[in-house]
Design a protein that fits this description.
Helices cover about 35% and strands about 20% of the residues. The chain has about 500 residues and is α+β, with helices and mostly antiparallel strands. The protein folds into 3 domains: about 250 residues, FAD/NAD(P)-binding domain, CATH 3.50.50; about 130 residues, Fumarate reductase/succinate dehydrogenase flavoprotein-like, C-terminal domain (Methane Monooxygenase Hydroxylase, Chain G, domain 1); about 100 residues, Alpha-Beta Complex (Flavocytochrome C3, Chain A, domain 1). The strands form 6 sheets. A 5-stranded parallel beta sheet has the order 7-3-2-11-19, sandwiched between helices. Strands 14-13-17-16-15 form a 5-stranded antiparallel beta sheet. The protein has a 4-stranded mixed beta sheet with strand order 20-18-12-22. A hairpin with a 2-residue loop joins strand 13 and strand 14.
Length: about 500
Amino acid sequence: MAPVRDVVVVGAGLSGLMAVYRLRVLGIPVVWVVGGGINASNSVLAQGGIAAALSPIDSVDLHLKDTTLAGDGLVEEDVARSIISEGAQIVSFLVHIGVPFDRKEDGTLHMTKEGAHSVSRILHVKDETGRGMMAYLARLVSGVKKVEGRLVDLRVKDGISYGVRVKINDGNVVDIPASATILATGGYTGMYSHFTGSTDQDGVGIALASYYGATLRDTEFIQFHPTVFFGGGRAFLISEAVRGEGAVLLDNKGYRFMVDEHPLAELAPRDVVARAIHRRGGAYLDFSPLKKKGICIEDRFPNIVSHLRKEGIDPLREPVPVYPAAHYYIGGVKVDWWGETDVKRLLVIGEAASTGLHGANRLASNSLLECVVMGYHSTFRAWWYATQEPLHRANMPEFEKKDYDLSPPDGHLKGQMSRYGGIVRSGYGLRKIATKILSLWDHAVIGSPRWAQVILSGATVCSAWWRTESRGAHYREDYPDRWKKALHSHIKDADIKRCLEDMRGDDIHV
């Protein structure tokens, strides 16, 4: 009986796409579980760009310095240096194969600046960089076998992964055996009422990895994007590149308040800007400085301008009302340099993973860089399993059939997370959320979006409760100071419920 040499990649974002591309180049058979498809991924929504030290005035050391400063003491510097260094080479390769990054009139790459970057190093495709990169790379893997469906379970036994279980779009559940499984299922900012990501990012991949033994790290760090426009009942992100080109933030009296908040003003780290806007109950983004600099915003930011005008706001004529919204899941499944977890043959990449690059606060546009690097790197380990240690069907364990539902997240819990577990937190508020989570605990079916919400909201609350300091994207109003020693949080699935029960008290009511 022939060995199983397939690698299954779950997730249609940039990290998953990069892994599929590399596996195809290596000649490894791939099964690609694409969920709602490429257009339902977070990567397609990425506006600003991808950071890479390619400019003559830039360097790996300088990019690393900016990354570690933004990360507020928790960046793993050896990992960050490797990702930044290799990332510059991989982005150069993407430029070489034709990814359509914007260029200046002289043909050189046009690079812009975003928050906490000391130089312009952001490559972009207008204001739809993710969409531009994805559309180009997707053409290179058009022949790969795709499965349209949602991940509902992992095939794991005794700490070893044997593939995945997927509920396909016709309602049937299918098992996909694989010698290596790569989860590129995105983050989980959907635990909040207002978030900028795709609704397809349901957190199930992260929760399943935890359930079967992987460690979650730094789940308390959720980055809120400072400038989000709310219209038509949904959040629309206004790229930080707009501020990078010169737009400023005003309060309700027309005062430019960020000059008093941080030396970098509007280009301060995102947690600083988000909290400053939160304290004021909102702000206004003024595009007029771009016009004064001679920048045509219709050409530079066509998608943003078009969307705002459809909502009745003309950024050329009036400031745009903005407020922070959950944007990036900084923590995730703890992985090594190859993307491997505590579960053998299970790899996690992209926003679902915690590599150590982002620390306590992600530097703008480092996420797409991490996607291409870890998408690339994970294929080395997957190649090894598929060619050197393939699984044999005769030795695969049996997995019991289960009933799966797709029950949606609980709206009240989302509201509690937004009110008490978002930009500003306190011990009392975290205990209220813990009580609410426990009320849902025994009613959530494994593999459902509601189950993932319960598990990951619980992990976030427990880690935030443990972190009695304020650092990066985590701010405790009852513990505003920072610990002298920087420590990561780690939590296992078995510890979450016990932690929540310890937090709950008779004085707390939902």
